[in-house]
Amino acid sequence: MLVIRTATLDDLDPLYDLIAASTYGLTTLKISKDQLQERLEESEFAFRRKPKRPSGQPYVFVMEDQTLGKLVGTCAIYSKVGGFEPFYSYRIETTLQSSEALNVTKEVAVLHLVKEHDGPTEIGSLYLDPNYRGSGHGRLLSLCRFLFIAAFPDRFDKEVIAEMRGVVDAEGKSPFWEAIGRHFFDVEFPKAETMTTVSKNFIADLMPKHPLYVTLLPPAAQATIGRVHPQTEPALALLKQEGFEHRNLIDIFDGGPVVHCARDRIRSVRDSGVGRVEKIEEAVESEPFLVANQRDAGFRCCLGTLQLLTTDPPSSRDVEAGASVAIDRVTALSLGIKIGDSVRYVTPKAT
């Protein structure tokens, strides 16, 4: 059984070993062990407290193979981007330029640097052990975050984004970075993405402030704008199924797309239900559901079976009056659930 749970400081060593295998372009995972420890400390504190509004707290989750007692994946939610260190991106704007004398009309794409101090919630830092990819495990790891957001919406902004990994080769070469960033920072792409985990001051110091005309970039760089790394295509497809859209923002380093969705319009948030556990049985006949307990610091989520025992469940927001449900014993044990507890559930895919 694979279970996603809140990360703790006890996960420091195995989690650091896990993310050390991540490849170029996963910027938020290119951190030192001390940085990871600090992130886990901040995350533990965030899960325990009851914030009235998002202020940049990280919520870190890990996926554990309970059979082996092994960490095999991780993901995170950052309650708000910006703040003390702004969130940077490029906005793509297209204009028409014409000349009557030449009888020419051209559509010109321009990159404008965006600096945001009061940004949305961001999901990110997702990494899954290659041996566990496939069979829906990556989907479970990604969607668990939305069940947590649905359970505790006040902790998060009304808008959610995801920065998708752009095109970077196995040697860490990014055509977009080579065309722009390298000329101003004079470092390789892997060094630049590592620097952002320490401080973003160098971006304000060196990044060009004026608009950049896309047509002046090399063809290889133009071809990668708004595109994702081949290994990221399934993650992008999943988020699109959840309601995320590309709104012409791209990453300033590798040109990967930044996708957006209103928090309450995300499918797994909008369509999730809440139920009070009335029965725990050896087996329950049903299609698989993503099922999570309703705890903050002890949040756990897994794929399990769940049966509605009431035919007309009320709104998922009405926790006290939620539908009565039956769940199987393995799911109950994995989530630490007993009769009388409430669970939040959603189908793994849109129906």
Topology:
Elements: E1 2-6, H1 12-19, H2 33-48, E2 58-65, E3 70-78, E4 82-99, E5 104-118, E6 121-128, H3 137-151, E7 159-163, H4 175-179, H5 181-185, H6 189-195, H7 201-206, E8 212-213, H8 219-224, H9 233-241, E9 245-250, E10 257-262, H10 267-270, E11 273-281, E12 288-293, E13 300-308, E14 323-328, H11 329-335, E15 342-346
Parallel strand pairs: 6-7, 11-14
Antiparallel strand pairs: 1-2, 1-13, 2-3, 3-6, 4-5, 4-9, 5-8, 7-10, 9-10, 11-15, 12-13, 12-15, 13-14
Explained architecture:
The chain is of the alpha+beta class and 351 residues long. The chain is 25% helix and 33% strand. The chain has a five-stranded mixed beta barrel. Strand 6, helix 3 and strand 7 (159-163) form a beta-alpha-beta unit.
How would you describe this structure in keywords?
351 residues; alpha+beta; Aminopeptidase; Barwin-like endoglucanases; 2 domains; 5-stranded mixed β-barrel; 15 strands; globular
